[in-house]
Task: structure prediction
Amino acid sequence: ISNAAILASYPLINSTLRTKNPKAMKQLSDYIQNVQEKLLSLNGIEVAIALYDQNLTQVSQVNFDPLTEMRIGVKDRFGINLAQKEKVPIVGIEKEGNYVYSRAFAPILLADGTVNGMIEFSQKIRVFQPIMENESKEYLFLLNKTELIDVSLRTSEIFSEIGDDFAAYEGVYNEYFYSNLTTVDFDLLFDQGYFIDENFYTTYKFVEDIEGQVIGVMIFGENTKTSSSVVNLTEDITRSVTTIALALVVSLVILLF
Result:
């Protein structure tokens, strides 16, 4: 059973959202907190969960990084509004402020099909890093510099410029792989689909948000010193790109179905 379904099946969730009785809301918030803690303890899934009423007003939130979160107006968010309009779960990539997330929006429906609220699951884009590490490969997400709202962040302790067009979060990824990217010819990488130097075989996948706009690129690498041949590297990294692409959907779809 999906985690979204667990929340949606919470006893009296519709009446709680309608009346917003303080005691009932507290019980519902505690239940959401419990779901988040179970996800983390059982599956190692770090996920933020938000609950909205029928007007898409946030009434509860369990966050993973409250000090760095930047909430924008719900009416400006494509994913949650699409889920409300279509009355079906929506899964995809969404940028909020200067940060990028993999998200799922699950509408809470009344018996007559009316949307009575919304559940939002949110994971940081680096959630896919452990998938690659489990395959002894490297992963790094680069954000288009044009997507940075605060341009001063481009040279801050939070972000660092990589190439002419991208910015990356510092201190999150493999430091060796991170520093090696400063020597990568990105034009050649994007033209031929891969880049090989004495350290890594590197390839990529462009990342589109829920609206279909390219907002960044996932970079994948495999240490050339630990692989037997370029053929094996190509096969391994191609398989990994497929894995990570599917994970963009699967990691949150499993929360919905």
